[in-house]
Every structure is written in C-alpha cells, then in structure tokens.
Design brief:
3-stranded antiparallel beta sheet; globular
C-alpha cells in the first residue's frame, strides 16, 4: 500500500510550480530541472481531482489549501493570456527560467524545445511568466474533470467552520469564474481551443468532442444553479441510444491514452448529472479495456455503479500495487499507458508527479471501494 502522504509531500516539493503540475529530471537523488513536456494542464486537473477527493475524506485546512492552490494554478492557465478563458498548456516564471526549465528568450538554437515553440508562434511572455499554447481537447478534459470533482467536494453537505469559510468561498469563486470563462471563450470560437491570437494546430485536436462539450455545459449549469443545458442534449441522447454504433472503432486500436480521456469524460458526465448515459458509455468502455487491469478505469467503473467482478478488482489492485512498488512512472499519468508499460519507472532520469498513485488512492477511498 502506498505511503500516500509521502507522495503528496513529494508532489508539492518537486512537481508543481504556481499550482501547475510538472515532471522533473533527477540525478543522484537530486531534482534539478523541470521537464518541457506539455500535458501540464491535463495533469493539473487530475491532481485537483485527487486533492478534492482527499478533502472529501478529511475536511481540514491543509487539504482545503491543496485544492485552493491547485485551483489558482488552473486560474492562471485560463487567464494568463489577454483573453479570459483561453486555456494554455503551461505557464512558468521567467525568473531563473533557463536554470530551472531551459527557457531563454535570447536562445536561437532551434534544437531547444522552447525556441522551436517560439518560432512556430505558440510561446508568449507576460511581465513575469512565459506560457505555451497549442492547446488540445486532452488538456481541457483534465481541467473539466478536476473542476467537476472539486465542485462536488466543496458543495457536499458538511459543516463549514469559521476558519474554513473564506477559503471555501474562494474555491467556489474560482471554479465559477474558470468554468464560465471557458464556456464563453469556447462559444465565441465555435468550440475551438484556439489561442488569443487565433492560432490552432494542424489537426482537429483543438475541437472538443460533443461528450466533453456537454460535460462542461453540465458543469456550468451546476455552478450557476441552472437547469441542465439543452445544447447538445439531443446529440448526447443519440450517442447513448446508439452507443454500439458510435463506439465500434474503439476496438480498432489499443490506445490507452484515448481510453483514459474517455473514462475521465464519462466520469465527469456521471458526477454532473448524466448518470444513465455515462454508465452505458462506461459499460462499453469496459468491454475494450477489461484485459488491462487498469486501476483508474476499474475504480471509476465501480464508483459509477457498474458491476465489477472480484477478479477484475483484484487485477486492478495488483496493477496499482505494481505501480507503487516500481516507485512511480516517468510520465504524467501511468494509467494512460498499456498494462505492460504502466509500472515502468523513470527512463533518462525523468520522474513523474505520481498523480496516478495519489488520484487512484483517493478515488478508491472516497467511493469506499
């Protein structure tokens, strides 16, 4: 079993900057640099979900602070550009940026990751930070998932003490602002994650799919105290009604990265009020992932009321324990990897933030699995 507090302390010490998640490079047990990998927004949303589940289990000030500090990071990711609601992949302080992450605005070496990003027009600066755009729906998926879990955690029935009251209200304010600004911006751009200059990548990954759009709109209706949105409701009914037709291609690839995103969206739909449809979708997803023993997937299935066999649960727990025993993964999130790669530790001294361990632990605890 994981010493979950030690993983969490390590996360806050080495794997976040301004509440935003980063992988790190390590040599002789000393962390010496932040990684340039760009799934930071997605991973930050996942950590927010983990912190929110932890707070649900123990509603104290330290756990509330973890939520609030991560939400401030997400607010930065959605408000650092001149246009509120534009989601960026990452942001990082300019001070000592070359030493910490290899960024130097005067570096013109095209083998440097940041130089290449600047030349393609996706890297920008404010007075105190630089930030990277070229955002895809993957990043939005993690952000929306984390915000949905956080909203449920902070609005469950519990007695708010006086020292907590201001922080709780700040959590609500940030979630509402981020959600509403995301929706406003996406509706302005016809549901494109184009940046403040209008830049998008060469693929359609800047366009959230209808399931993710509906999940975000459902979340917005909850934070604003409104009825369920009518937009995309008909499309989603058809998606769930003809779920086999809409998901037949899932079996053509063993892409765990894509399945990881689908599980997050399905869980978001479930906790924002679309339980029946989400369960149908998860049931289909489980058919394609049953051989993976993926702990994150199985725990979500169980959390959403699907029947999970003892054998499947045993396999998921075994994979989770393998990940813990391996010392963590070198990526942002091990559960987006195939079964035989999920428990492999850092290559080239690159170390992940262990959100895969932390989130799975608190997800399972929160739903008493």
């Amino acid at each position: 079993m994981a010493d979950i507090d030690s993983y969490d302390k390590l996360y806050w010490k080495n794997h976040q900057m301004d509440g935003i998640t980063f992988c790190r490079w390590k040599h002789n047990e000393a962390h010496y640099g932040y990684d340039t990998g760009a799934d930071n927004a997605l991973a930050t949303g996942l950590y927010l979900a983990a912190a929110s589940y932890r707070f649900s289990m123990s509603r104290n000030i330290p756990n509330l602070n973890k939520m609030l500090d991560t939400l401030r990071g997400i607010h930065l990711l959605t408000h650092i550009t001149p246009k509120p609601g534009v989601l960026v992949r990452l942001a990082f302080p300019l001070e000592d940026s070359y030493k910490k992450i290899g960024y130097d605005r005067n570096n013109h070496d095209e083998t440097n990751t940041w130089t290449r990003r600047r030349l393609e027009g996706t890297l920008y600066e404010t007075v105190t930070r630089f930030y990277y755009t070229k955002t895809t729906r993957d990043q939005l998926t993690g952000i929306v998932y984390g915000l949905a879990v956080a909203w449920n955690a902070i609005n469950a029935k519990w007695r708010v003490t006086s020292p907590q009251a201001e922080k709780v209200e700040n959590v609500r304010i940030i979630i509402k602002e981020v959600v509403n600004d995301l929706v406003t911006r996406l509706q302005e751009t016809n549901w494109s994650l184009k940046d403040h200059t209008g830049f998008v990548g060469k693929t359609n990954a800047h366009k959230p799919n209808k399931q993710l759009r509906y999940a975000l709109l459902l979340l917005q209706s909850r934070v604003n105290g409104q009825e369920k949105p009518k937009q995309y409701k008909t499309r989603m009914k058809l998606f769930f009604k003809f779920i086999r037709l809409h998901t037949f291609y899932y079996g053509l690839t063993r892409n765990m990265y894509a399945f990881n995103l689908r599980y997050m969206i399905a869980h978001t739909l479930y906790i924002t009020g679309e339980q029946k449809g989400a369960k149908k979708w998860l049931d289909r997803l489980s058919k394609y992932t049953k051989s993976e023993d993926n702990a994150f997937f199985v725990y979500i299935e169980k959390a959403c009321g699907l029947g999970v066999s003892d054998e499947r649960m045993k396999g998921a727990d075994h994979q989770y324990n393998r990940l813990v025993e391996s010392g963590g993964h070198n990526s942002f999130f091990a559960w987006q990897k195939e079964k035989n790669k999920a428990a492999s530790n850092g290559t080239n001294n690159r170390y992940g933030p262990n959100i895969d361990i932390i989130l799975s632990y608190w997800l399972k605890k929160n739903y008493n699995i």
